[in-house]
Amino acid sequence: MSAESTFFHYQPVSGDKKKDEPKLITVVSLRSEAEKKQGKNYWLATKMDDNFFALQELNEKNVPSGPVNKITAADFGSKYILELNYFQQVVRPSMEDLDHVLERGETHRERGELYSAEMDYVDALAVDEENVRATFGLGLTYLEKGDVEMAKEVFTKVQELKSAFEPKHKHMFNDFGISMRKNGMYNEALLYYNRGIELDNDDENLFFNIARTHFEAGNWEKCVRYLTMCLEKNRGVEEARKFCNYLVNKTTSDDSMLREMGASGAGSRLRSDILNLLRQMQIAAGVDLDDAIEKTHEIRDRMIALEEEDIHMKEIEKDIYDLGDV
Q: What average pLDDT score do residues 98-103 get?
């Protein structure tokens, strides 16, 4: 079944408005190691609130890398000491250099300078091999180059990065999903959209994108289901309302779509489920209940008529076959 992907021009907002960032404190080391001349470990310390701090260990390149650990303010005060000079003289310049490389890579990618973008992301990963921003950027670059196999390798790596699964990265999963869908990688796209939902299940844009992916993959039932959830979360998404109207009109006029939705092989229960979803979707989009019921009944009657036509045609074909040669 072909999907009319050109119907869409809407790209949901992929990122949130910037929230107040946690206040950066400094670099710390363990008190028990404070007097050691060698082998000292350092962490970047961020104040989350009055009760908790976040610690991320510095790698050999003097940038924070890997998972972030949450500790109480009491433990922070009793177990760690500040390393103010080390932060100002070593860590801060290293972090700024890395950020500059990432920004340069993102600028190259936005301009379509994909080879340069790839080189910058690779350079960034050489400094911090677990950098989430660089990993996502490299994967998106490979997709835009059409190098699906390399993109899959990067996406596999994302699954192994614990630090990727934080709410602040949900828009990256959404961006991944969009790029994968455009490349026809529907299963992979759905995997990343669902990862985004795990991080924030109130983001209607993720549900819209899942519905759109199922639409292009030809899964009508799931398309309607997720579009309904999108509209239930925010009826004000105008493109979701347009998508709803489009689907209702398509189910009214597209016999091939109705045959798939109401196929006897799918069973009456599935057909009933889809009809219920179509009604719920219209109501979620703001359609009057009576009008939604009337339209759903119209769709149901056409489904039944098509099923009866198909049964009749099969009986005719069987009769012709049974006649044999004369």
A: 96
- Give the Cβ contact number of residue 314 at 10 Å: 10
Sort 259 into a burial class: Cβ within 10 Å, 0-12 / 13-18 / 19+: middle
Average pLDDT, the chain: 83
**Sheet strand arrangement including 43-47:** 69-72, 52-57, 43-47, 23-30, 80-82
CB 217 within 8 A of CB 189: no
Q: Is 302 exposed, middle or buried (0-12, 13-18, 19+ CB in 10 A)?
A: middle
Whether the predicted pLDDT of 315 surpasses 80: no
Sequence-ordered list of residues with C-beta below 8 angstroms from that of 289, at least 6 positions apart, any chain:
283
CA dihedral sign of residues 244, 249, 250, 256: positive
Q: Are 55 and 45 in contact (CB under 8 A)?
A: yes
Closest to 225 in 3D by CA, of 249, 244, 202:
244
User: In Å, how far are 104, 111, 215 from 124, measured between CA atoms?
Assistant: 10, 19, 37
Long-range contacts at 105-109 (CB < 8 A, ≥ 24 apart): 105/134, 105/137, 105/141, 106/137, 109/137, 109/140, 109/141, 109/144
CB 66 within 8 A of CB 42: no
CB neighbours of residue 6 within 10 Å:
6
More confident residue, 305 or 286: 286
Average pLDDT, stretch 252-258? 81
